[in-house]
Amino acid sequence: MEKQSNKALEIRKMSIEDVQEVYKIENQSFTNSSWSLEAFYHELEKNEFAHYFVVSLGEKIIGYCGIWIVIDQAQITTISVDESYRSNGIGQLLLEYVMNYASTTCTTMSLEVRIENKAARHVYEKAGFTYGGVRKNYYGDGEDAKVMWVSLKND
């Protein structure tokens, strides 16, 4: 990670003005299954279930996460950190933030992750997500997805 002596990390709701920067990270992260610009605009402007967040360092957006909340269930739709800032705990911080956000109304959270994406699976497992099944040929390139779940209630 670049040295940034006087800048602090901030997590906030994503705005329309953030979409172009988020889209750059999306394309850098997901070459075979990236979301379109239109998809991000639709999520922010028209999807009543969508909640999107960005993490920034100073003025620079370095990560984002989207979730859908339907009644008491949350689903992570997309999450990524700029490759220059990975392996610094930023993805974990962002994930824990959205889990906390969703826990005010939701009992569980789920996601799909590429079977081969060991780094992402490690982040999810560290946050308490467990294996829930496989979605065959889930991604456009034919790769399977591992479904993972976590309880958001401390019983």
TrEMBL record:
One of its GO terms (cellular component) is ribosome. Its main location: cytoplasm. Its EC number is 2.3.1.266. InterPro entries: AcTrfase_RimI/Ard1 (IPR006464), Acyl_CoA_acyltransferase (IPR016181), GNAT_dom (IPR000182), YpeA/RimI_acetyltransf (IPR050680). Keywords: Acyltransferase, Cytoplasm, Ribonucleoprotein, Ribosomal protein, Transferase. Residues 9-153 form the N-acetyltransferase domain. It catalyses: N-terminal L-alanyl-[ribosomal protein bS18] + acetyl-CoA = N-terminal N(alpha)-acetyl-L-alanyl-[ribosomal protein bS18] + CoA + H(+). It is found in: Cytoplasm. NCBIfam families: rimI. Belongs to the acetyltransferase family. RimI subfamily. This is [Ribosomal protein bS18]-alanine N-acetyltransferase. The lineage of its organism: Bacteria, Bacillati, Bacillota, Bacilli, Bacillales.
